[in-house]
Amino acid sequence: MDRPLADPSKLLAQWMEWERGETPPGRVMSNLKIGGLRELLEHLAAPHEVATPDA
Predict the structure, then answer these.
(1) Do residues 37 and 6 touch, judged by C-beta distance below 8 A?
(2) What is the Cα–Cα distance from 9 to 15, expressed in whole angstroms?
(3) Taken in order 30, 35, 39, 45, is the CA torsion positive or negative?
């Protein structure tokens, strides 16, 4: 199944709904997963993994 790219603004809005107590944590986690948070974090972490030598 092809999903659209993660939208950081939407992900932040969903997170903020949880912080304001509008959405329960389980629903927020589901929304973040469906919204592509993992893929966004992997993309952001990739440059750090390349730049960090193995210890």
Answers:
(1) yes
(2) 10
(3) negative
Query: In this predicted model, what pLDDT tens digit does every residue of 9-32 receive, in sequence order?
Result: 999 999 999 999 999 999 999 999
Structural contact between residues 33 and 3, judged by C-beta atoms closer than 8 angstroms: no
| Assigned token pair, 6 | 């993660």
Rama region for 14: left / alpha / beta (φ>0; ψ in -120 to 50; rest):
alpha
Q: Which of 29, 28, 34, 43 lies closest to 4 in space, CA to CA?
A: 34
Mean pLDDT within 45-55: 71
